[in-house]
Amino acid sequence: MAGLPPPPPVGASALPAGTFDGTAVFVTGAGTGLGKAIAAEFARLGASLVIASRKPEHLDAGRSAMEELGAEVLTVECDIREAEAVAAAFDAAEERFGLPGVLVNNAAANFPVPAEDMSPNAWRTVVDITLNGTFLCCREFGRRHLAAGSAGSIINIGATYAWTGGPGFAHSSAAKAGVKNLTETLAVEWGPSGIQVNCLVPGLMPHEDMTDDIQGNLRRTHDKDACQPALRVGERQELGWAATFLASPYGRFISGHTLVVDGANWQRRTLTQPPVVTVRDQMGRPPFTGE
Q: Which of 63, 87, 122, 244 ranks highest by number of CB atoms within 10 Å?
């Protein structure tokens, strides 16, 4: 068995050179990981990049990576949980490049914890960043385009457990389900005004910004590719290519859609059910005592 073929190398694109010339793309959390990979593919196609993050070191990393590709870059410190901070970031973007034509809501928070152990603050933090932050950025982008009478494209980043739930991720799965529903709602509301809204879901695409639980999973499984129907993991540029297509002139009739880029891994089923291993056991936690 060979699995799905490998992708073209980094730097290749199915879209014409210059597809995003003159377009500013606003990406949250684009300093590392998959956000940076998405931003890079827009940069290769001529876009100017606005990178928003709370962490100065991530802003510096994102700026350096995009400038190496020849893109104009603006970095803005922004806590997407704060409406005023989001508005200020868009003000800075407009002053530098004009109104961004594409918004990629990549920033999120996540960590595994059994629901019974989850603190109220942990729940609030993940939902606030992942769902509320995505809404506030969408709202700011949408309001500005509606006022200007201009078309735009929003890409939200989702997760497959928006459909299935995710043991150990009650906070994140609930938030991502909200993001999926938000995507579908805004696509209908704003479509008549020329604003396209989609959701993009990555599969396992190893990168430097993976959470500790995912890194631990990879370390514990000596041959992770064999756990994927594609017999390989994803390459991060494959997510970037999907994002650039959705936001391009060639994908503008696609709206309200959630596109999963994971080699069918989330749809995998077995003929016989494997034994259930509780989340506590998977995480090496003792039985819950209520203390």
A: 244
